[in-house]
UniProtKB/TrEMBL annotation:
Gene3D superfamilies in the record: putative rabgap domain of human tbc1 domain family member 14 like domains, Ypt/Rab-GAP domain of gyp1p, domain 3
Compositional bias of kind Low complexity: 155-166
One Gene Ontology MF term: GTPase activator activity
Protein known as: TBC-domain-containing protein
GO CC annotation: mitotic spindle pole body
Residue ranges constituting the Rab-GAP TBC domain according to the UniProt record: 49-281
Region (Disordered): 141-167
Organism: Trichodelitschia bisporula
GO BP term, example: negative regulation of septation initiation signaling
Listed SMART domains: TBC (SM00164)
Top-level taxon: Eukaryota
């Protein structure tokens, strides 16, 4: 994770130059700093539909997601329906269902394949941890069976992982959780192939948002609680007004926290906001949710029933949200900012 306002490099080159040349003199930290700063300041150029020649490659670098052989992705797909398949199919048909840009470019079958592959990959990680044949739950998928057991045995293990409760193993990855379908959507829209989208999606889940896909999604619930805390610091009047109406963040903010705001259209603005979040840290999504509230504060303060307004956030305005988010971060106590970083882990 990085602070959203790093000191600018001496010279920031065009994005395509940074991507094509790579780290200067092999200095990876300096190269990443230049890339993050470029994205923070200028964003990623795209057309009116949000399409860009550079976005997916920039995201893959920011996610530290190396290329994956297509055959490795296909091996996961060939395993067929994961134990979470029924849940996946219950969600895929309604993923960004009202967004014509997404529906025109991404098929339900494509989304289903990526989500089932991700479910199997998470099961591999959980089985490896439980079985003890590798130490890290983040170990990469191997094409060799490596003692993973039969498909039925793995499905049984997935069922036990998905059934974890607060009194059981909270550290276990589950095969599929609410919101994963929406988190996969921007990658499928942006990527050049399913395999490319899968690599980025898998990296986001397991390395950037592991707390959102373990146990009972405690990371998501912690993020929702943090919305209240951040709002109390950044706009005490708005926070007190909502609190007086019984409107804690758990009433209205859960979908936005869960999906990194991807549940709120339009899609091109979601992609622009994700450019910022992936460059500066996905934990800042909590602050971005607060920024959206502040953008409509006058409506909320003047409404007889604020809940009606908060049921559906207004269209995303990535530029304004990013600017407010950066300004709000400077106001947060160090201890609160530390918990923002930690809640996604």
């Amino acid at each position: 994770m990085v602070h959203p306002t790093p000191p600018p490099p001496p010279q920031v080159e065009p994005l395509d130059t940074i991507l094509r040349r790579g780290p200067p003199a092999g200095d990876v930290p300096a190269g990443l700093a230049a890339l993050r700063y470029k994205v923070l300041v200028d964003g990623i150029p795209s057309n009116s539909d949000g399409m860009s020649d550079h976005r997916i490659y920039t995201w893959l670098i920011l996610l530290n997601a190396p290329p994956l052989p297509t055959d490795t992705y296909l091996d996961l797909v060939r395993q067929g329906a994961s134990p979470a398949h029924a849940k996946i199919r219950n969600d895929t048909f309604r993923t960004l269902a009202t967004d014509p840009l997404f529906r025109r470019r991404v098929t339900e079958n494509s989304l289903t394949r990526v989500l089932n592959a991700a479910s199997w990959k998470l099961l591999d990680a959980h089985e490896a941890r439980v079985g003890g044949w590798i130490r890290s739950p983040d170990a990469s998928f191997s094409e060799e069976d490596g003692g993973r057991g039969t498909r039925s045995q793995r499905a049984s293990l997935a069922g036990s992982a998905a059934g974890s409760t607060a009194g059981e193993d909270k550290s276990a990855y589950v095969g599929y959780v609410q919101g994963m379908n929406v988190l996969a959507a921007p990658f499928l829209y942006t990527a050049r192939s399913e395999a490319e989208a899968f690599v980025a999606f898998d990296a986001l889940l397991r390395h950037e948002l592991p707390g959102y896909i373990r146990g009972s999604m405690e990371g998501v619930h912690a993020g929702v609680r943090l919305v209240d805390e951040v709002l109390a610091v950044c706009d005490p009047k708005l926070y007190s007004h909502l609190l007086s109406r019984g409107l804690r963040a758990e009433v209205y903010a859960f979908p936005s926290v869960l999906t990194l705001c991807a549940c709120t259209p339009p899609l091109p603005e979601v992609l622009a906001l994700w450019d910022f979040l992936l460059a500066c840290g996905v934990h800042l999504n909590v602050v971005a949710v607060v920024a959206q509230l502040v953008l409509i504060r006058e409506q909320v303060l003047g409404a007889e029933s604020p809940n009606q307004i908060l049921r559906s956030f207004p269209p995303l305005q990535a530029g304004k949200i990013k600017a407010l988010t950066i300004s709000f971060v400077a106001r947060l106590p160090d201890e609160l900012y530390r918990r923002l970083i930690e809640h996604v882990r």
